[in-house]
Amino acid sequence: MNLSSRRRSPATVSRCVCCLSAWTLLLAAITSPASAEAPEAKSLYPAGLQRGTAADLNVRGKPGTQPASIWSETDGLSFELDEKGTTLKVTAADDVPPGLHWIRFYNGEGAGPLVPLLVGVLPEHREEESNNRLDEAKEPLATPVLVNGILNKSGDIDTYAIELKAGSTFVASIESHRSLATPADPVLQLLSPDGFVIEQNDDHHGFDPQIVHAVQQDGTYYVRVFAFPATPNSTINFAGSNDYVYRLTLTIGPFVDHVVPAESPEASPRAVGWNLAGVDSVTPDDLPGLHTIHRSHHEERTFVAEEAESTGRAEPLPVPCTVVGHIDAQGQVDAYPLKAAKGDALRFRVRSRSLDGAHDPVLKVVQVSDGKVLKEVDDIARGNLDVELAWRSPADGDYRLEIFDRFGHASLRHVYHLDVDRDTPGVELSVANDRLMLKDDNPLEIKATLNRAKGFRDDVSVTATGLPEGIEVTPATSSASGDTSKEVTLKLQQKEGAAAFSGPIRIVGTTAGETPLEVEAVAGDAPALGPKTQVWLTVIVKAE
Question: Core-most of 127, 167, 374, 448, by most CB within 10 Å?
């Protein structure tokens, strides 16, 4: 994360639901027995619900000492936890955005990890065992539907019957490992009315599978789900456990693969996917699909339209900007003009696989005057097929960025984002853990690591923001050289009269100068798709 001028108040990011008052937390800390424990809830089953409804979800993990509370940053979600802390009633308002949301369980003793919660737009169904074999599949499910399932033991297979009509396009898609961080590597099969496998998919978006099938004949078809462990081991059987939770979308209706962002406030984002005819008036957020997981906020970015192949782009790309492009035909090369002065330091990124696209991009930088290829780059690293290039212009002039697929492939899913930025000095800030404990009179030391890039030489003042009253912070300053250039330690201390507290804070670094800048620390153990910069602080006051 490079330095930016963006600031966010913790109050605008976090909202406590079912919050305990500071007095309640204090009483809990004083009166709780020595065996009192913080909650360690790690997941939910089902792992989500349809918006505009309420659902009872089983809490997986240790409930900790009750009562406990639930934090969420999403307006429109409310929670009610039973006395044992094992069942959570979630209510999602009609206007809750579909997609991935995060909650956290906490009490006076501490907080658990961030827990994913998926909100969908389709009617929901819970798997009914046993359904290993085709003859055990229950009555055909009415589509569209979102099935909540679990492969709860080794060798488990889940089978669902559906009625399909010739001429329809059927989509089956699973969310499990990618967004729910389960240990499963699911496999998805579509079986014909005669019981033959006609489609099979394993890794489509990450480890999670998806099938899109053009139905050729009417009949009762079967969808079958099983899994292998995401981390391979010595077993040769299908895998399963209470953690092998999944959400399976089955539909012959609209399903979105990705969204092309709006180019201006007056324009609307455009959905790309299947069965989208006649839904132009529906916003993409109201449709099911993969797009809700990678919903981007596009903060302070200029988006540029990919021009038609027949005309190409005439105007040079502005810097910074993001182009949302698409490879429509085999062998296609997308070209974007760029004007640069001698010595301009630029950074180009082409993202597709990290956004679950199918594109394997290659990027060329071409000098327009003579057609000379100045740079050609492919994969960032082994297993990372996206592209990143730091480039310095050798002279004033006109250049061209060319993007194409490594193997000349093309499809609906060959979408990419081309990011063009100044390659300026910057710094990244991180802390090891997203959960901190300040107890009694003992000070809390927080180590913050700085990664200085491109010769960044400014001093960085690191502190904590969003602290409750009665908590004093001793900031730390990182100098450009010496022991503090890469790591500093800031300190939190209770003052007299401090109250119990449990809530999110931020660790931030700022620089002085004509234009003060700010960077937020990323927690090293934050979920891959979760809020990276939230750090949770629990304050336990000394009992009188």
Answer: 448
